[in-house]
């Protein structure tokens, strides 16, 4: 029973990650100045420079600070409960999990992988063949889609509650080192 409960929780949080990623891709402005790779730093900096030039190159100031310990002072429960409602804009999310078979180019063997897709429009989950033609086929060129589609519906309120509890219950306080 414990293994089934753990598998269900893993599936739920995997779907939650897909939903959050989908929302952030659809509306990158919700991330503010957050970056997750060096490429994103360049992209954000380029936009800053363009905006700066458009506004007549006003004086610009740079501040450098050490934020290593700053997250220890952020009340994470409050942060999550304030931010998640802004990021999660729909009342209900539908996540499709589907299988794709493709040939491994190095070994020549067939490989089956599962992928997830967060539906963007109402009823999108009903028309999986159309979804493959219009969106998913582009992501998986040369692959075979297997009819192993599972549909999971997650309510916004339950998602916010579960993620808030996850963050609040899994915060580990690390004591400051004394010198």
Describe this structure as you would to a colleague:
The chain has 179 residues and is α+β, with helices and mostly antiparallel strands. Helices cover 45% and strands 18% of the residues. The chain has helices at residues 2-26, 38-54, 76-87, 128-139, 156-169, and strands at residues 92-103, 110-118, 144-155. The protein has a 3-stranded antiparallel beta sheet. Strand 1 and strand 2 (110-118) form a beta hairpin. Helix 3 packs antiparallel against helix 5. The radius of gyration is 21 Å and the shape is globular. The mean pLDDT is 84.
Brief characterization of the structure:
The protein is α+β, with helices and mostly antiparallel strands. The chain has 5 helices and 3 strands, in the order H-H-H-E-E-H-E-H.
What is the helical fraction, as a range of percent? 40-55%
**What is the alpha-carbon Rg in Å?**
21 Å
* Overall SS class: alpha+beta
Query: Mean pLDDT, nearest integer?
Result: 84
Shape: globular
Q: Please count the beta strands (DSSP E, at least 2 residues each).
A: 3
Main β-sheet, in a few words? Answer: 3 strands, antiparallel
| Tally of DSSP helical segments | 5
Q: How are helices and strands ordered from N to C?
A: HHHEEHEH
What's the end-to-end separation, in Å? 48 Å
Strand content: 15-25%
How are strands sequenced across the largest beta sheet? 2-1-3
Tags for this model:
alpha+beta; globular; 179 residues; single chain
SSE diagram, text form:
Blueprint lengths: L1 H25 L11 H17 L21 H12 L4 E12 L6 E9 L9 H12 L4 E12 H14 L10
Helix pairs in contact: 3-5
């Amino acid at each position: 029973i414990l293994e089934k409960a753990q598998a269900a929780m893993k599936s739920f949080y995997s779907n939650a990650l897909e939903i959050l990623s989908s929302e952030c891709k659809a509306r990158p402005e919700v991330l503010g100045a957050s970056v997750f790779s060096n490429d994103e730093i360049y992209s954000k900096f380029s936009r800053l420079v363009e905006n700066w030039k458009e506004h007549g190159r006003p004086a610009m100031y740079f501040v450098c600070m050490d934020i290593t310990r700053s997250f220890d002072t952020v009340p994470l429960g409050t942060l999550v409960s304030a931010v998640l409602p802004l990021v999660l804009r729909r009342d209900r999310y539908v996540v499709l999990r589907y299988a794709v078979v493709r040939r491994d180019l190095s070994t020549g063997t067939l490989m089956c992988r599962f992928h997830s897709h967060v539906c963007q429009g109402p009823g999108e989950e009903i028309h999986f063949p159309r979804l493959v033609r219009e969106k998913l086929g582009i992501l998986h060129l040369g692959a075979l889609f297997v009819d192993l589609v599972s549909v999971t519906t997650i309510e916004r309120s339950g998602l916010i509650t579960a993620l808030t509890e996850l963050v609040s219950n899994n915060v580990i306080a690390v004591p400051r080192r004394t010198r």
